[in-house]
Amino acid sequence: MSFDPSQRAVLAGLADVLIPAGDGMPSASAAGVAEDGLNQVLAAVPSLGASLADVLARAKGREAAEVVTSLARTDPAAYGILTEVVTAAYFMNPNVRQAVGYTGQGPTPLDPRVDYMEDGLLESVIKRGPIYRPTPKANR
Amino acid sequence: MSKGQVNADVLIIGAGPTGAVAAKRLAEAGMRVVVLEQGDWPDYARARADHADFELTAGRDWSANPNRRQGPADYPISDVDSDIAAVMYNAVGGSTVLFAAHWQRNMPSDFRVRTLDGVADDWPLTYEDLEPYYEQVETDFGVSGLAGDPAFPPGKGPPLPPAPLGRMGQRVARAHNQLGWHWWPAPNAIATRPYKALRPCTQRATCMWGCVEGAKGSVDRTHWPPNLALGVQLRMGARVRRLEVNSGGLVTGAVYVDRTGVEHFQPADVTILGANGIGTPRLLLLSGSGRYPNGLANSTGLVGRRLMMHPFGTVVGLFDEDLGSMRGVWGQHLHSLQFYETDPERGFVRGAKWGLQPTGGPVSMTRSYPWGDNPIWGPGFHQSIRKRLGRSAMWGIIAEDLPDEANRVVLDPELKDGDGIPAPKLIYRMSENSYRLLRFHQERARESLQAAGAYETIVAPLIRETGWHLLGTAKMGVDPGSSVVDAWGRAHDIPNLFIFDGSIWPTSSGMNPTATIAALALRCSDQLVRSRSNQEVPT
User: Fold this and answer.
1) Is A137 a domain residue?
2) What per-residue string of b and e applies to B119-147 under the rule 16 or more CB within 10 Å gives b?
3) Is residue A104 part of a domain?
4) What phi, psi does B338 have (nearest 5°)?
5) Interface pTM (ipTM) of the complex?
6) How far apart are alpha carbons B293 and B497 in whole angstroms?
7) How far is C-alpha B146 from the geometric centre of its chain's CA atoms?
8) Among residues B161, B255, B404, B467, which is most buried (max CB within 10 A)?
9) Is residue A136 situated within a structural domain?
10) What's the CA gap between B433 and B416, in Å, rounded?
11) Which of A41, A125, A127, A137 to mutate to test the interface with B (most CBs of B within 10 A)?
12) What are φ and ψ of residue B74, in 5° steps?
């Protein structure tokens, strides 16, 4: 499913209400959410396209902030589609990921240190003794 | 219908943990075992932990809700009359493919709920009866953890050392020591060292969306390759429509539909159900006839009743340092059973287990679960992301669910699966005891995180899609008048029909159930091997 420039413009407006620029971070539209970001989202989950198109059609010609507020209040499903598309697209941008310190779910080998033994951590638990109720003797 | 199948000594329905454990033991004893599985092998090529779209595609390919996933192996589940939606995975490996791998033995009191707390029922076995089987399945699944947990009787620990606590775990461990509360390095079915077919975990925190590392002890990896080498016949894409019974009241085998829609009959001397707490009663109810108008093995009317699904609570804490909680073992880094046992002063019976977990990547920081309706959008967005991402830790709370015959699985009068077989319908309401129990535990979990230094805590809203643990719908017991199967999983009504899965639990415990499901399946299988010379079979 493809989105034309007018639909992308509507998405950009809505996305910037959700994720404005600030704290050294770009706005959603500046991060390409309505351009490459949207393309990547739809390539990964094409089924989001129809629902998103419906949201954009309902938003066309309306003030973006009012649409976002209204969706949040009256149509959680549509609001969920919009926020999922916008955040997924935003955080797929490599510059955004770098700026928030997110390097993805890559591998990190397990630390071989036995950290549960440090500072007598586990000894304290052992000293407090058993906390279970044993099987009643009549049943053993 | 095709009838050319060779008779099996044992037919098992379902290739999840129950079927895998049973097939292994029975094949080792020299039995000819056939397993029918409606799914296929899990496709780990679709696990995208290394891709930028991971958080987006995880829900596409690895959704735990079959109604959302709608794969060819899935059947729909009507849950409009249920407070909790059931989640499961239909494939070789069953729900271990997606489970969080929290490997919790039940505590001794879980087997004696009536005796100790005056509610529900005792199990027809004890912790001590099951202990040797816990030890064996922990070896088979490559479980990591540490012996000596004072929440359990002394005994042998799992074969692999536990995952590290990490920064968030250390904070919480120190806090619990100050509070005098229990914690222990968590047991997980996650390899921390190379172990048989498993590789060591690399802390991607993607355990529930396809473990790309091959570190998680799901039975498609731990059991099925050796089972196939033992000669077990695994037939995939085989959806069982009904069990057949002869005039002597013995099950003769199962009618199943293959993926092309062709029906087959698989004959067997003995049939074992391992299709989970929804699939198993569904099949028994589907197998009704003039002679068995209420379904098979259902003279008590208990098949499908007493459904327990473990209401699930979550509490998140925000910290002022980087805890590395974007990644980790998910899984759990530590667990606490401080409030597991009944205390009458609390106004409810039984308890819950807590598991400390990471919180994931940036998109997860924006979702309504676990963050609730805490405002994130708009001018505060970036600040909120920075507060949450990597700086949050989460307690997951498994609440014991007491049995109630009104909570049940029935056949939906209209909804059908892709083969035209009636779908299950859930009728389930959370009890007042569960609500009280969860509220108490959420407050204590909040105190735990505050003591660990959290400057803000958030109690997650209760969400529907938490029905991971499907238990109780074919109760085990000594009395044929008040239970479906005996202590060995044998149906009281039909002597060559067995149920080994979580359906047979008399009570739910407050633990993640796979350890006990596996141990129980092994114990029941052992007994089947021991008693094989006396086993009644169809002629």
Assistant:
1) no
2) ebbbbbbbbebbbebbbbbbebbbbbbbe
3) no
4) -60, -40
5) 0.95
6) 17
7) 22
8) B467
9) no
10) 34
11) A125
12) -85, 150
- Which tokens in the block code for residue A102? 């997110």
Half-sphere exposure of residue B296: CA atoms within 13 angstroms, side-chain side: 28
Listed residue (B341, B275, B364, B250) closest to B77, CA to CA: B275
Burial (CB count <10 Å: 0-12, 13-18, 19+), residue B432 = exposed
The overall pTM is greater than 0.90: yes
Looking at chain B from residue 138 to 157, which residues have their Cβ under 8 Å from any Cβ of chain A? 146, 148, 150-153
Nearest to B52 by CA among A46, A34, A96: A96
Number of structural domains in chain A: 1
- Whether residue A124 lies inside any domain: the answer is no
Q: Closest approach of chain A CAs to the CA of B513, in angstroms?
A: 18
pLDDT score for A1: 82
Dist. CA B400–CA B384, nearest whole Å: 34
> What are phi and psi for residue B317, nearest 5 degrees?
-120, 145
Average pLDDT across chain B, whole number: 97
Tell me the pLDDT band of B498, cut-offs 50, 70 and 90.
very high
User: For residue A40, what are the domain limits?
Assistant: 5-99
With residues binned 3-state (H G I as helix, E B as strand, rest as coil), the percentages for chain A, rounded to 5, are 65, 0, 35
Identify the residue whose tokens are 């998140």: B316
Q: Which residue of chain B comes nearest to A124, CA vs CA?
A: B177
Q: How many CB pairs under 8 A join A and B?
A: 181
Contact state of A116 with B116 under an 8 Å Cβ cutoff: no
Strand runs labelled E in B97-162: none
Maximum CA extent, chain A = 77
Work out the average pLDDT over B442-454: 98
